[in-house]
Amino acid sequence: MSLVCTNITFAYNGTRVLHQVSLDVPKGSFCALLGRNGSGKTTLLHCLCGILHPESEEIMVDNNPVHLVNGTARAKCISLVPQESDQIFPFTVLDLVLMGRNPHLSGFAMPGAEDEKTAWQALELLGAAHLAKRRVNQISGGERQLATVARALAQQAPVMLLDEPTNHLDFHNQYHLLYQIRKLCRDQNLTVLASMHNPNAVAAVADRVVLLEAGHAVAQGDAESVLTQKQLSRLYGMPLVESRLTGGQKHFMPVMEFRR
Ligand SMILES: Nc1ncnc2c1ncn2[C@@H]1O[C@H](COP(=O)(O)OP(=O)(O)OP(=O)(O)O)[C@@H](O)[C@H]1O
Predict the structure, then answer these.
(1) Average pLDDT in the 160-164 region?
(2) What is the mean pLDDT of residues 167-191?
(3) Where in this chain does the record put each ABC transporter domain (predicted)?
């Protein structure tokens, strides 16, 4: 399902941090959201999934107005991987991932065998099944990140929002996670909007890119045309060089003199 939002405006205590942000993520595409610290990426993702309530908004998932619904109905359409783990109780990893199934359970029903199967599949996809019986307060930051992503996968919403999903992950797991998510876009039409900080990882996986500058969406479109030396140098306020790797993928490096 596609994700389209129009004119999202949001203020914290009267200070506007999002200014009429509109974006369009086609069904089955991986869209990266890039911007400097404090540019409004998390705020935008929280507006889209209903944690925050903008002054004005129109959010459509496959032409359905999800800004008019909250709670379970919204969670069936949109999942979120938060920037930091939001879990403070010592659940097992499997219990945490099973929480992703809550929107699909009626009343006080407990997860059943099918829910367990879905949770295990999510963990296996991320190479994290070995963590299932461990407690979330007794595993590493990266392991907890994998569990949090698995919970969102188990939610099986057609649109997934990820807030810096590679936080805490080692080099292998960063790319394994991103490639698995991109594969879900291709194979299962998952629609993804992910805030990311590394333009080279974005170049490796994203179909589309949105650049956010001080709460304004200043550029968006297909990754090839938006990810350019000129745009990124302006966004990050530093000189960059752009090159191509053997496979044709773009690669960016800062031009900086570091003191040794
Ligand atoms: N709870 C809050 N109350 C007041 N201001 C906030 C709050 N949360 C964020 N802000 C401010 O809103 C702006 C956008 O913050 P946001 O967290 O959305 O940025 P971000 O792009 O996700 O940043 P980062 O890359 O550092 O995670 C910033 O100026 C930030 O200081």
Answers:
(1) 97
(2) 95
(3) 3-239
Global ipTM: 0.99
135 forms bridges with which residues in the sheet?
92
Query: Hey, which of 8, 10, 12 would you mutate to test ligand 1's pocket, going by the most ligand atoms within 8 Å of its Cβ?
Result: 12
CA dihedral of 244, 210, 126, 137, whole degrees rounded to 10: 120
Give the pLDDT of residue 188.
Answer: 94
Q: Which domains does the chain carry?
A: 3-254 (3.40.50.300)
From the CA of 42, how far away is ligand 1's center (Å)? 7
Tokens matching residue 251: 């690669």
Instruction: Calculate how far, in angstroms, residue 157's C-alpha sits from the geometric centre of ligand 1.
Output: 26
What residue spans of the chain are helical by DSSP H? 41-49, 71-77, 93-98, 113-125, 141-154, 171-188, 199-205, 223-226, 229-236
